[in-house]
Amino acid sequence: MGKKVIKFMDTSFRDGFQSVFGARVFTDDFIPAVKASVDAGITHLEAGGGARFQSLFFYCGESAFDMMDRIRAETGPDANLQTLARGINVVALSQQPRDIIDLHAKMFKKHGITTIRNFDALNDIRNLEYSGERIAHHGLHHQIVITVMELPPGCEGAHTSEFYLERLKALLDAEIPFHSICFKDATGTANPRKVYDTFKGARKMVPEDTVLWFHTHDTAGIGISQNFAAIEGGADGIDLAKSPVCGGTCQPDILSMMHVLKGTDFTLDLDYEKILAAEEAFEEAMKDYFFPPEAKMVSPTITLSPMPGGALTANTMMMRDTNTLHHYPAVIKEMADVVRLGGFGTSVTPVSQFYFQQAYLNVTQGKWKVINPNYGNMVLGYFGKTPVPPDPEIVKLASEQLGKPVFTDDPLDILEPGIPKATKILKENNLEVNDENIFIIASCEQKGLDYLLGNAKTSIRKKTDMEEAPAAKKPAAKAAPAAAPAGPRSYSITVNNRIYDVTVAEGSGAVQAVPVQAAAPAAAAAPVSGTEVEAPTPGNVVKIMVKVGDSVTQDQPLLVLEAMKMESEVKSPSAGKILAVHVSTGDTVQASDSLFTIG
Q: What is the pTM of this model?
C-alpha cells in the first residue's frame, strides 16, 4: 500500500506576512516569489484575508482586491487560492451586518478566491451559520473551523479534545454547508497528544470522504510535533510556510516537514530541489524587509499565556512605536488571568487582542481598575457566547464601567445594514459607489475612506529605511569606550523618519528598540481648566470626531484610537463643551495622555 499524500497550503503570502511583518508587505515585492512557488509545484496558496485585507489599505497604500487579482493572474486559473475570515467579522475587526457578510463572499469570489476558511474565536455556532451559508451560496469552498489552544495552568472547563468534539457535533447538527473542516491553533500551544485525540475522534464522527485540516504556529517550538500528531490522528491537510517567514510566529517550514515525514506512512509528494528554489526566490524577495527578532524566536512561555503569532508581532511593533515594549513580559504573564476570567474564548483575532489590551491595562493601570471596552463587551455577551461563563465579578465590573447589561441574543440581530451607511459616506465624499468601495468603507472605516480619497500613508519597515539619518539631522554620537567590556551594545537607527535607541544584549543577542522622545516645546500653552479625557491605552490617533467649541453629550464618541491592531472609540465621560484638543490625527499617544479638555 502506498504512502498517504498529505495535502498542504503554503501560508507564506498571508499568515507569513501577518506573523512576521504585521501584514505590512508591498505586492510588487513578493509577486515574483508567487511565480516561483507555482513553478515548484505548489498549487494551494493563502492569498489574503485576515489582517492581509485591512493592512493593504491601512499601511501599504494598496487595494487588497488588486492584490488578489494579481496573485490569481500569476498562479493561473487552477490554483486553489484561500483566504481567512472571522465569522461575522469577516475581514474586519468589528462585527459586520448581514448585507456586508454577503458582500464579502461575493467580492472575494469575484476577485479570484477559491476557498474561505471561516472561524469564530468563541466557537459560537451562531457566528458561523450565516457567514458560512453565504460563502457556500456564492460558489466558494467553505472550510469551517473549530478554534483550539492550550489553557493556562490552573484553568479547566474547555479546550480539551472532548470540548472540540462537542463543538464538532454542534457544527454537524447545525447543518451549515461546508466542504472541509479545520482545527485552527493560532497560538501553537495545543498539546500534541490533545491534537491527536481530537483528530482521532473527529475522523470517527464525520463521513469517510470529509477532508480534515490542521493549522498551527511554531511560536512555542512544537508546530512540527503538532502537525505530525494531527496527521497520525487522521488529518488530510496541514499548513506550512517557506523560508524566510517560516518557524517562530509563523507555520513550520515545508522542507522541515518533508524531512520529518521520511520513513513514515505519509508524504507531501514534493521535489526538494524545486521547493529549495522557491524558498531562495522568496528570500531574495524579502531581503530588504526588517524582521522583528521576536518573530523568529521560540517563546516557551507562550504555552502558559497563549498569544497568536500574527498578533504577537503586531503588538510588539505597536509597543515599540509607543515606547512601552518594556511592559511586554508582564503583559504576557498577566494574560493567563485575563483568559481564565474571561470565559476561555480562543486566543485568536479579535479575542486575542481583547486579551492583550486587558492584560496591558491590568499591568499599567492596576488589576481590573479599567475594563477595556472590547474585553468588557465580550464577557457581557455582545460578541456571542463564551465557551464557559466568565467570572461573575468581572462581568459585574464590565457592566458597571460600560453601562451595559448582559446580552444573550444573536449579535447579528443588533447590527444595522451596512450598505446604506457605506453608500452615504461614498456619496458625501464624491466617490464612486460600487461593491468594492462599499466593502472597503464597511470593513476599513476611516482608513478605508482615507485610501479611497488618496490620503493613505504607507508604513512598511524595510532595512533601507533604517539607514542613519543625514549628517545634519544625526543625533550626537555617544563616545566609544576605550575597551569593549562585556555587556549590552547600543545603537541609534532611523525607521520611517523616527529615531530609535537599540540595545543588543551581550551573548543572547536579544534586541530592544525604543523611540527617542521628541524634545519638549520651548513654551507650554497655559492649561485649560476642565475635565481631562485620557487615552485608555497607547496607540495611534486615527480620527478626531469633534473640534474646540463643540457641545458633546455623555458617551458621545470623540476620537478613534488604533491600539494593538484594534480600533476603538474614546467617548466623552460627561456632557459639556470641548475646551481643548490636545492631539492631532496621526499622533502616537501613551496610556493616560490627555486627549481633550471638556468644560
A: 0.83
